[in-house]
Amino acid sequence: MKLVVLLSVITVITIACSDQKKTTPEILTPQWELVWEDNFDTPGLPDTTVWGYEVGFIRNREAQYYTESRLENARVENGTLVIEANTDNWEGNKITSASINTLGKKSILYGRIEVKAKLPTGVGTWPAIWMLGENMKQMGWPACGEIDIMENVGYDPDTIHANIHTKAYNHSIGTNKGNRIGIEKPFENFNVYAVNWFEDHMDFFVNDSLYFSFQNERTGNNAWPFDKAHYLLINLAIGGDWGGRNGIDDAIFPQKYFIDFVKVYKLKE
Fold it and tell me: What pLDDT is stored for residue 23 in this prediction?
Protein backbone atom coordinates (compact mmCIF):
# COMPACT_ATOMS: atom_id res chain seq x y z
CA MET A 1 0.00 0.00 0.00
CA LYS A 2 2.81 2.41 0.91
CA LEU A 3 4.55 1.59 -2.40
CA VAL A 4 1.40 2.38 -4.38
CA VAL A 5 1.01 5.73 -2.58
CA LEU A 6 4.67 6.57 -3.17
CA LEU A 7 4.42 5.74 -6.87
CA SER A 8 1.28 7.88 -7.13
CA VAL A 9 3.04 10.83 -5.51
CA ILE A 10 6.03 10.45 -7.85
CA THR A 11 3.69 10.31 -10.86
CA VAL A 12 1.88 13.51 -9.79
CA ILE A 13 5.18 15.33 -9.22
CA THR A 14 6.52 14.16 -12.58
CA ILE A 15 3.39 15.33 -14.42
CA ALA A 16 3.46 18.66 -12.62
CA CYS A 17 7.12 19.22 -13.48
CA SER A 18 6.47 18.21 -17.08
CA ASP A 19 3.55 20.65 -17.37
CA GLN A 20 5.62 23.40 -15.76
CA LYS A 21 8.41 22.85 -18.29
CA LYS A 22 5.96 23.02 -21.18
CA THR A 23 4.38 26.28 -20.02
CA THR A 24 7.60 28.13 -19.14
CA PRO A 25 8.29 30.72 -21.90
CA GLU A 26 11.49 30.27 -23.85
CA ILE A 27 14.24 32.85 -23.38
CA LEU A 28 14.28 34.45 -26.80
CA THR A 29 17.30 36.14 -28.34
CA PRO A 30 16.63 39.57 -29.87
CA GLN A 31 15.25 39.49 -33.39
CA TRP A 32 16.61 42.23 -35.62
CA GLU A 33 15.27 43.93 -38.72
CA LEU A 34 17.72 45.69 -41.04
CA VAL A 35 17.20 49.46 -41.23
CA TRP A 36 20.12 50.47 -43.44
CA GLU A 37 23.49 49.19 -44.56
CA ASP A 38 26.52 50.22 -46.55
CA ASN A 39 28.45 47.41 -48.20
CA PHE A 40 30.84 49.77 -49.98
CA ASP A 41 30.17 48.41 -53.45
CA THR A 42 30.64 51.62 -55.46
CA PRO A 43 34.27 52.68 -56.04
CA GLY A 44 35.30 56.24 -55.28
CA LEU A 45 34.48 58.51 -52.38
CA PRO A 46 32.19 57.17 -49.61
CA ASP A 47 28.45 57.57 -50.31
CA THR A 48 27.60 61.21 -49.56
CA THR A 49 24.00 60.29 -48.67
CA VAL A 50 25.39 58.34 -45.70
CA TRP A 51 28.78 59.82 -44.80
CA GLY A 52 30.18 63.24 -44.02
CA TYR A 53 33.60 64.22 -42.68
CA GLU A 54 35.35 65.77 -39.75
CA VAL A 55 38.00 68.20 -40.95
CA GLY A 56 41.20 69.38 -39.29
CA PHE A 57 42.76 68.70 -35.90
CA ILE A 58 39.74 67.71 -33.82
CA ARG A 59 40.53 66.29 -30.36
CA ASN A 60 42.84 64.49 -27.94
CA ARG A 61 45.99 66.25 -29.18
CA GLU A 62 46.16 63.78 -32.06
CA ALA A 63 48.82 64.13 -34.75
CA GLN A 64 46.70 63.60 -37.87
CA TYR A 65 44.89 66.20 -39.94
CA TYR A 66 41.48 64.89 -41.05
CA THR A 67 40.73 65.66 -44.69
CA GLU A 68 37.44 65.88 -46.58
CA SER A 69 36.56 64.17 -49.85
CA ARG A 70 40.16 63.17 -50.48
CA LEU A 71 40.62 59.73 -52.05
CA GLU A 72 44.08 59.39 -50.55
CA ASN A 73 42.50 59.24 -47.08
CA ALA A 74 39.02 57.73 -47.59
CA ARG A 75 37.90 55.73 -50.60
CA VAL A 76 35.89 52.70 -51.62
CA GLU A 77 37.78 50.06 -53.57
CA ASN A 78 37.45 46.30 -54.07
CA GLY A 79 34.24 46.21 -52.03
CA THR A 80 35.68 47.83 -48.92
CA LEU A 81 36.02 51.26 -47.44
CA VAL A 82 39.68 52.14 -46.96
CA ILE A 83 40.65 54.82 -44.46
CA GLU A 84 44.33 55.55 -44.90
CA ALA A 85 46.75 57.49 -42.73
CA ASN A 86 49.94 58.67 -44.35
CA THR A 87 52.86 61.00 -43.85
CA ASP A 88 52.27 62.90 -47.10
CA ASN A 89 52.71 66.44 -45.76
CA TRP A 90 49.53 67.52 -47.56
CA GLU A 91 49.11 71.30 -47.37
CA GLY A 92 51.80 71.39 -44.72
CA ASN A 93 50.20 68.73 -42.52
CA LYS A 94 52.70 65.96 -41.83
CA ILE A 95 50.11 63.18 -41.21
CA THR A 96 46.71 63.01 -42.91
CA SER A 97 43.84 60.62 -42.26
CA ALA A 98 40.02 60.54 -42.34
CA SER A 99 37.11 60.49 -39.93
CA ILE A 100 33.74 59.84 -41.55
CA ASN A 101 30.38 60.08 -39.80
CA THR A 102 26.62 59.96 -40.35
CA LEU A 103 25.74 63.27 -38.63
CA GLY A 104 22.74 64.84 -40.33
CA LYS A 105 22.39 61.85 -42.66
CA LYS A 106 21.63 58.71 -40.64
CA SER A 107 20.21 59.03 -37.13
CA ILE A 108 20.35 56.08 -34.73
CA LEU A 109 18.33 55.48 -31.56
CA TYR A 110 18.39 51.92 -30.19
CA GLY A 111 19.03 48.79 -32.22
CA ARG A 112 22.04 46.78 -33.29
CA ILE A 113 25.00 48.49 -34.93
CA GLU A 114 27.63 46.22 -36.44
CA VAL A 115 30.76 46.96 -38.44
CA LYS A 116 33.01 44.37 -40.05
CA ALA A 117 36.57 45.67 -40.11
CA LYS A 118 40.24 44.85 -40.39
CA LEU A 119 42.34 47.22 -38.33
CA PRO A 120 45.55 49.09 -39.00
CA THR A 121 48.46 48.50 -36.64
CA GLY A 122 51.74 49.95 -35.46
CA VAL A 123 52.84 52.13 -32.58
CA GLY A 124 50.78 55.31 -32.75
CA THR A 125 47.63 54.04 -34.49
CA TRP A 126 44.24 54.51 -32.83
CA PRO A 127 41.31 53.29 -34.98
CA ALA A 128 37.79 53.55 -33.62
CA ILE A 129 34.13 52.79 -34.31
CA TRP A 130 31.96 54.92 -32.07
CA MET A 131 28.88 57.09 -31.60
CA LEU A 132 28.10 60.55 -30.26
CA GLY A 133 24.83 62.18 -29.28
CA GLU A 134 23.42 64.36 -32.02
CA ASN A 135 22.94 67.08 -29.41
CA MET A 136 26.67 67.40 -28.74
CA LYS A 137 26.85 71.03 -29.87
CA GLN A 138 24.06 71.93 -27.45
CA MET A 139 24.98 69.65 -24.54
CA GLY A 140 28.74 69.33 -24.91
CA TRP A 141 30.83 66.27 -24.19
CA PRO A 142 30.35 64.02 -22.26
CA ALA A 143 26.78 65.07 -21.44
CA CYS A 144 25.76 64.18 -24.99
CA GLY A 145 26.88 60.58 -24.47
CA GLU A 146 29.56 58.57 -26.24
CA ILE A 147 29.36 54.88 -27.20
CA ASP A 148 32.69 53.31 -28.14
CA ILE A 149 31.90 50.13 -30.06
CA MET A 150 35.55 49.45 -30.85
CA GLU A 151 38.85 51.08 -29.98
CA ASN A 152 42.34 49.73 -30.47
CA VAL A 153 45.78 51.22 -29.86
CA GLY A 154 48.73 50.07 -31.91
CA TYR A 155 51.12 49.55 -29.02
CA ASP A 156 48.68 46.92 -27.67
CA PRO A 157 47.48 45.47 -30.98
CA ASP A 158 45.64 42.34 -29.84
CA THR A 159 43.30 44.11 -27.42
CA ILE A 160 39.87 45.49 -28.34
CA HIS A 161 38.15 47.98 -26.05
CA ALA A 162 34.52 49.00 -25.54
CA ASN A 163 33.64 52.02 -23.42
CA ILE A 164 30.84 54.44 -22.67
CA HIS A 165 31.25 58.07 -21.65
CA THR A 166 28.64 60.13 -19.82
CA LYS A 167 28.75 63.07 -17.44
CA ALA A 168 28.72 60.65 -14.50
CA TYR A 169 30.99 58.02 -16.03
CA ASN A 170 34.05 59.03 -18.01
CA HIS A 171 37.82 58.65 -17.92
CA SER A 172 38.49 62.34 -17.24
CA ILE A 173 37.06 61.99 -13.72
CA GLY A 174 38.21 58.41 -13.15
CA THR A 175 34.78 56.78 -13.36
CA ASN A 176 35.08 55.17 -16.78
CA LYS A 177 32.88 52.18 -17.62
CA GLY A 178 34.19 49.69 -20.14
CA ASN A 179 35.98 46.42 -20.78
CA ARG A 180 38.46 44.78 -23.13
CA ILE A 181 38.86 41.51 -24.95
CA GLY A 182 41.85 39.81 -26.57
CA ILE A 183 41.55 39.16 -30.31
CA GLU A 184 44.43 37.56 -32.17
CA LYS A 185 45.81 39.78 -34.93
CA PRO A 186 42.77 41.98 -35.71
CA PHE A 187 45.06 43.70 -38.23
CA GLU A 188 45.24 40.53 -40.31
CA ASN A 189 41.63 39.38 -40.11
CA PHE A 190 38.18 40.92 -40.40
CA ASN A 191 36.04 40.84 -37.26
CA VAL A 192 32.52 42.06 -36.55
CA TYR A 193 32.34 44.76 -33.86
CA ALA A 194 28.83 45.39 -32.57
CA VAL A 195 26.62 46.89 -29.90
CA ASN A 196 23.05 45.90 -29.08
CA TRP A 197 21.45 49.09 -27.73
CA PHE A 198 18.22 48.81 -25.75
CA GLU A 199 16.30 51.28 -23.61
CA ASP A 200 17.61 49.69 -20.41
CA HIS A 201 21.09 48.41 -21.31
CA MET A 202 23.79 47.95 -23.95
CA ASP A 203 25.72 44.80 -24.85
CA PHE A 204 29.05 44.96 -26.70
CA PHE A 205 30.42 42.15 -28.89
CA VAL A 206 33.35 41.08 -30.98
CA ASN A 207 31.96 38.50 -33.39
CA ASP A 208 29.71 36.41 -31.11
CA SER A 209 31.57 37.17 -27.87
CA LEU A 210 29.77 39.44 -25.39
CA TYR A 211 32.40 41.17 -23.27
CA PHE A 212 30.83 44.34 -21.84
CA SER A 213 27.35 45.40 -20.72
CA PHE A 214 26.19 48.75 -19.39
CA GLN A 215 22.92 49.16 -17.52
CA ASN A 216 20.53 52.11 -17.41
CA GLU A 217 20.39 53.08 -13.74
CA ARG A 218 17.26 55.18 -14.30
CA THR A 219 18.92 58.13 -12.55
CA GLY A 220 18.75 60.58 -15.43
CA ASN A 221 20.81 62.07 -18.23
CA ASN A 222 24.09 62.27 -16.29
CA ALA A 223 24.31 58.48 -16.19
CA TRP A 224 22.20 57.55 -19.23
CA PRO A 225 22.08 60.08 -22.08
CA PHE A 226 21.39 57.14 -24.38
CA ASP A 227 17.67 57.78 -24.81
CA LYS A 228 18.44 60.31 -27.55
CA ALA A 229 19.59 59.92 -31.14
CA HIS A 230 23.28 59.35 -31.87
CA TYR A 231 25.39 59.30 -35.01
CA LEU A 232 28.11 56.87 -36.07
CA LEU A 233 31.79 57.71 -36.59
CA ILE A 234 34.61 55.63 -38.08
CA ASN A 235 38.07 57.14 -37.89
CA LEU A 236 41.76 56.41 -37.89
CA ALA A 237 43.56 58.64 -35.40
CA ILE A 238 47.32 58.79 -34.99
CA GLY A 239 48.97 59.57 -31.68
CA GLY A 240 47.02 61.58 -29.14
CA ASP A 241 46.43 61.07 -25.45
CA TRP A 242 45.93 57.31 -25.74
CA GLY A 243 47.15 56.23 -29.16
CA GLY A 244 50.38 58.18 -28.75
CA ARG A 245 51.17 57.03 -25.24
CA ASN A 246 54.23 55.17 -26.54
CA GLY A 247 54.97 57.66 -29.30
CA ILE A 248 54.46 57.33 -33.05
CA ASP A 249 56.58 55.07 -35.22
CA ASP A 250 57.08 57.00 -38.47
CA ALA A 251 58.16 53.79 -40.22
CA ILE A 252 54.65 52.26 -40.10
CA PHE A 253 53.08 54.51 -42.74
CA PRO A 254 50.98 54.23 -44.79
CA GLN A 255 48.42 52.49 -42.56
CA LYS A 256 45.10 51.24 -43.96
CA TYR A 257 41.86 50.59 -42.06
CA PHE A 258 39.45 48.34 -44.00
CA ILE A 259 35.67 48.37 -43.46
CA ASP A 260 33.74 45.58 -45.19
CA PHE A 261 30.26 46.68 -44.13
CA VAL A 262 28.19 48.78 -41.75
CA LYS A 263 24.74 47.49 -40.77
CA VAL A 264 22.13 49.08 -38.53
CA TYR A 265 19.13 47.12 -37.28
CA LYS A 266 16.05 47.80 -35.21
CA LEU A 267 14.32 45.37 -32.88
CA LYS A 268 11.41 43.61 -34.54
CA GLU A 269 8.08 44.48 -32.96
Answer: 35
